[in-house]
Amino acid sequence: MRINKFLAEQGVASRRGSDELVAEGRVTINGKTAKAGDDVKPSDTVLLDGKTLSHKVKYEYYILNKPKGCVCTVSDEKDRKTVMSFLPAGAGRVFPVGRLDYDTEGLLILTNDGELAFRLTAPKNEIPKTYLVRVEGTISDIQLNRLRAGVEIERGVVTKKCKINVIETSKQYTKMHVVLTEGKNREIRRMFEVVGKNVDFLKRIKIGELTLSGLDRGAIRKLSQEEIFYLKNL
After folding, report:
1. Is the sign of the CA dihedral 145, 147, 148, 152 positive or negative?
2. 49 carries an active-site annotation
3. Which pLDDT tens digit goes with each residue over 41-64?
4. Which of 38, 141, 178, 219 is the most exposed place for a label (fewest CB within 10 A)?
5. Closest CA to 44 of 7, 83, 92
């Protein structure tokens, strides 16, 4: 098993984050500093920051209705509240799958299952994620069709085609469901900025067909076996 996959399965970090830990020289295999691409065997002793990692892993899966005002990281250099503070007492070492920015709320998965995290976030898998979006004022069909076709949010970076369904409109605001199959940084806010619209509310409400299931804002619970099976087979 590759070292980044092994670390991800320990719940240490995502595969990408695990690659960074290896590059920083914080991981050893049988006393030697690990390198990217190294393999790990069941008989190997793997240490992270001098602490031994077990080859046996108990996976945990949580779903959180993330509120505004917290970040999707394990710790924060600015000492802001993180999503880890919502975990129940006794929860193991898990990490957030993907990110919702500080002012975005909604559905977030936390787990130590690195393979599931990779499946849900890898762009090639095109896992649909649905967001409730509210913008100020009205929005025209021309603007909507531009967004649906994909827009350039920075030089050379164009969003994929997406689905947008207007569900409520007035002179003051327009509400929509937006379905994306990728997860660029602040993608929805940047998309709407391109067509001159400001997003004043953003909430992820679905991953595939998995919903918040009545979870109140800030509430968290373990995923059911059926939900875990569903996500692993998306």
Report:
1. positive
2. no
3. 989 999 999 999 877 778 899 999
4. 141
5. 7
